[in-house]
Design goal:
Layout: H1 3-18, H2 21-28, H3 31-43, E1 48-53, E2 59-61, E3 64-65, H4 72-78, E4 86-96, E5 99-107, E6 116-118, E7 121-125, H5 129-139, E8 142-145, H6 147-157, H7 165-175, E9 180-183, H8 185-192, H9 197-220, H10 227-240, E10 245-246, E11 251-254, E12 275-280, E13 282-284, E14 287-288, E15 291-296, H11 303-321, H12 329-342, E16 375-378, E17 381-384, E18 398-401, E19 404-409, E20 412-415, H13 424-433
Parallel strand pairs: 1-8, 5-7, 8-9
Antiparallel strand pairs: 1-4, 2-3, 4-5, 6-7, 10-13, 11-12, 12-15, 13-14, 16-19, 17-18, 19-20
Helix pairs in contact: 6-7, 9-10, 9-13, 11-12
The chain binds manganese (II) ion.
Length: 434
């Protein structure tokens, strides 16, 4: 195709996509997002405003961009998953066109002055943003922002020449010495760490898809395959079932690669006798799962692998068992480590045992204490390097991790990934059936 025409078509598609303002209103005024914004206002200082900006498309190379992922606080509060918007949420009403609003979404739309109003919330043209923004800085005692908003401030203060967050921060301090600037995560983390019914359903779907991918991979795995072939089997299921993507690059680590925590080259040819560690997560409606299963490439664990696997599995199950509101992260870590230490492998722990999941795979987190509605991972691991000379050779050169996703409930917990096989016999049976 003629290149000029191609560029024009691309531009046109993007333009048409960004102008669907009625649809924007539908998302923004959805009761789920309205409720989140009103909860946010309850946490805000008096006379303050939260100012958010969408993520920017990131250039991959030349004129090709990475797949877009919205800034998570912005998505959480708006439901908008496109670039080029601003959002203002204010503790006191903001006047615009003789009306007063608590939440204002500034959207790229065609009709210059079109406004969509719902109660005390409004969607209006992005071109109006800087009119409101200047007044907010002048009239607020506190503003809540996160990293992308320093660019907003900078654009406004420095005539749209972006320098850096640090410069923006300093310039802002000089110009508004009375203004307190706080990180928006002080407001959003306590909200985001407790999942709503809708969020739990999205995460459950992400987990189910991830489970189907893993089961497919377990059934397909055999010696001489490449790690990327396993990755393809897993991500085939993700794509087929409508996942928005992967929450993080799939880790498909065989043999000694299983010792590398964030291995994602996935290009080794697997051999009989290897373990295969698969740490993957489908992202569904932008919510990510995070599951790890470790399997024997040949279809049968060696005695040494079985022994290590059993210790990790015991640590994982017993740590899951103590989950309930009020338990702390450090108690979870202590529980998992104590079981691994008792078995004599304490030197081979490489990471902590848990984190929350959600819009980010390592999600918002406001305190050390578990509360009902949180979804966390439990993922103990034992990683024995080749040079661990105290151990017999068959125990060296591999890592085993088992990871499930767990909802903290009022009276305990629910393992959302319980249907994904993890018993030695279940895994070996699945592989035999192939
Ligand atoms: Mn994890």
């Amino acid at each position: 195709m003629n290149k000029g025409r191609f560029v024009f078509l691309l531009y046109f598609c993007f333009y048409a996509y960004a102008q669907d303002s009625e649809n924007i209103g539908k998302k923004f005024f959805d009761p789920e997002y309205k409720l989140r914004r009103s909860k946010l206002i309850q946490l805000m200082d008096s006379n303050s405003a939260a100012i958010l900006r969408t993520a920017e498309p990131k250039l991959r190379s030349n004129d090709v961009y990475y797949p877009f992922k919205q800034e998570c606080n912005f998505f959480y509060l708006s439901g908008i998953d496109e670039p080029d918007y601003f959002l203002v949420i204010s503790s006191k009403k903001v006047e615009f066109n003789n009306r007063n609003f608590f939440s204002l979404l500034f959207a790229p739309m065609r009709g210059k002055d079109t406004m969509y109003i719902s109660g005390e919330e409004v969607v209006l043209n992005k071109s109006k943003f800087y009119e409101v923004f200047g007044d907010l800085l002048k009239n607020s005692k506190t503003i809540y922002i996160s990293a992308p908003e320093y660019k907003t401030i900078n654009d406004w203060l420095n005539n749209k020449i972006y320098i850096s967050e640090k410069v923006a921060k300093n310039t802002l301090r000089e110009k508004f010495p009375e203004l307190q600037v706080k990180n928006i995560t002080t407001l959003t983390s306590p909200l985001r760490e407790i999942k709503s019914e809708k969020e739990i359903a999205y995460i459950q779907e992400a987990i189910n898809i991830t489970g189907d991918g893993l089961i497919r991979a377990i059934q397909k795995c055999r010696p001489d395959m490449y790690e990327y072939e396993i990755q393809a089997e897993i991500e085939y299921e993700f794509k087929r079932q409508g996942a928005t993507g992967t929450g993080f690059p799939s880790i498909i680590a065989s043999g000694e690669n299983s010792l590398i925590l964030h291995y994602d080259r996935n290009n080794r040819r697997m051999q009989r006798g290897d373990v295969l560690l698969m740490d993957v997560g489908a992202e569904y409606n932008w919510y990510s799962a995070d599951i790890t299963r470790t399997i024997p490439v040949s279809g049968k664990f060696t005695e040494a692998q079985k022994r290590i696997y059993s210790v990790v599995l015991k640590a994982q199950k017993e740590t899951i068992n103590i989950i309930k509101p009020g338990v702390t992260m450090s108690e979870l870590n202590k529980k998992a480590s104590s079981i691994i230490e008792e078995a004599g492998y304490g030197n081979f722990i490489k990471h902590s045992v848990s984190h929350s999941i959600g819009l980010d795979v390592h999600d918002a987190w406001s305190s050390d204490t578990l509360k009902a509605g949180m979804i966390i991972t439990i993922e103990p691991g034992i990683y024995i390097p080749k040079d661990a000379e105290d151990l017999p050779p068959e125990y060296r050169g591999f890592g085993i991790r088992i990871e499930d996703d767990v909802l903290v409930t009022e009276d305990g917990h629910k393992v959302l990934s319980e249907k994904i096989p993890k018993e030695i016999s279940e895994i070996e049976n699945l592989m035999r059936k192939n």
